[in-house]
Hints:
globular
Amino acid sequence: MTTQENFVRPTMSTIRQLLLSFFWFSTNMMWSAILIITMPSQIKAAVGDASKGSALGLALGAGAFISMIAAPVFGALSDRIHLPGGRRKPWIVIGSVGNAIGLVGLTYLIQPGHPESVVGWAVVFLFVELFNNVATGPYSALIPDLVPAAQRGSASGWMGLMTMLGTFGGGVMGFLIGPLGFAGIYFILIGVILLGAIVTIFGVKEYETPREVPPFKLGEFLKGLYEPLYIRILPGFFSPACSSPWASTRCRNSFNIKWEMSLGHLISWLDLGRLPIRLNRRFPFSYRRYYWVQLSPHW
């Protein structure tokens, strides 16, 4: 009987590997632009220099917590729940649409000189964080789902390239604040996120393999969320076996992958969020967030 574990994955062409990793470009471009460019500037305009650090820290810390919970939960749901359209793709559609709607809110809700407007803006920011993780949690499992063992190195390279290009593309948005304003940047990001979803839906083929789906039991599901944290993920910080999402069978589901990344994500903000204020240095700690998020799966 063919199962998910012993299914022989077909060799993937270069263009198919590019399409498979394209959504990493979209999501990294979005977060790079928001965290480095639009978010600090919008919050500073609303609350002023004196309170911008605290407001940013609270919003980003809450977002990190949302990511830590939502990513593994929706990744695990995609492992267990079969929706029409594939194992992962429906979640990418739902998450991308919600993400795009949230970006519209980030465009208009905050008002310069009105500190109270930050509250509603921050709520929508958490909405964007949630729905982005609805998409990326299951999406993270597509590479280990589809890429044969012999091509995992090249798939890793394409994922890294798309991630770096997305981060670079988000940084370039800083040059467009003058001619386009924040609204123009956010609508570009909406288009990029939706383009990433479209490329994934129509350019990536999921393979249907026979598998038994046990009935949903809440207790077993919750146990599956916390058990890998101390059995697999924390040891994985110090082991090269889990240094990439497709390195070994025990790291081959979206739940384990996103727990590891999300825990590092949260630790990075708790550890570094206040450091620029204490050191009185004026460099954006969003850069350090990216640095630590990229390093966290490799501890």
